[in-house]
Amino acid sequence: MKHLIVGTAGHVDHGKTALIRYLTGTNTDRLKEEIKRGISIDIGFASLHFGDELTLGIVDVPGHERFLKNMLAGTGGIDFVMLVIAADEGIMPQTREHFEMLQCLGIRHGIVVLNKIDKVEAEWVQLVEEDVRAWLADTFLADAPVCKVSSITGAGMEELRDALHNQAMVIEERDSNAPFRLWIDRAFNLKGQGLIVTGSVLSGKLHAGDAVTIFPAGLAGKARELESHNQSVPVVGAGQRASVKLAGVPLADV
């Protein structure tokens, strides 16, 4: 089974969360305030399975300018990006800012998704695609597939699923034999559970009970329990999303 992590990027209200919900059945907006306001505030997570061949961990990021810090936390450990642009608005400020951040992080693979094609005429979609292509020329997405979809009508969603699969299959899998490294994107105390950290496994494997070190402070801790996509597991490995219950480390020091 191949494991990779894909992250979303794009301006607020361009439909990133709706796309993930259509593809996976998971609503990555889990906070009460997100549901009330109808926008993503923090990063959210889902998984997309392709039989026994491939599992994609998905990190959905907020598109509002006030939450760029959260977006950065979520995309730090991804293998490739799904850059989402609404066909009725085109390239917007956080489209540009998110893409600049992806380039700074060294992301080198991805696909482009023109969402909300149900809101505009086909000729307008073509004009937006041409504009996007011109903007992405000489970048790592210059030759990326462009999927034209609607998360409302379902148009183009099978093609998007195929594009995600095809992109994932040509990306080199992360090294499961290297030392274990987890990019922490969230840390919190859970009542009755203790300290939980979540993140993307950059390399290696971690077993429940293993000793760990928190960098850059060099703090020693122990992995008490592990989860991946809300399922308790004995081990997590490179390319997977992981939740780790830590012992011996206070939240303030993570």
Description:
This protein has 6 helices and 14 strands. With 254 residues, it is of the alpha/beta class. The strands form 3 sheets. Strands 2-3-1-4-5-6 form a 6-stranded mixed sheet, sandwiched between helices. Strands 7, 8, 10, 11, 12 and 14 form a 6-stranded antiparallel sheet that branches. The chain has a two-stranded antiparallel sheet with strand order 9-13. Strand 7 and strand 8 form a beta hairpin. The longest helix is centred in the middle third of the chain and has 15 residues, at 122-136. The radius of gyration is 18 Å and the shape is globular.
**3D shape:** globular
**Helical region count?**
6
Biggest sheet strand order reads 2-3-1-4-5-6
Overall pLDDT: 91
The ordered H/E elements are EHHEEHEHEHEHEEEEEEEE
Question: Secondary structure elements and their pairing?
Answer:
Blueprint: E1 2-9, H1 16-24, H2 32-37, E2 44-50, E3 54-60, H3 68-75, E4 80-86, H4 93-104, E5 110-115, H5 122-136, E6 146-148, H6 157-170, E7 181-190, E8 194-203, E9 205-207, E10 211-214, E11 219-228, E12 231-233, E13 235-237, E14 241-247
Keywords:
254 residues; 6 helices; 6-stranded antiparallel β-sheet; alpha/beta; 6-stranded mixed β-sheet; 14 strands; globular; 25% helix
Compact description:
With 254 residues, the protein is an alpha/beta fold.
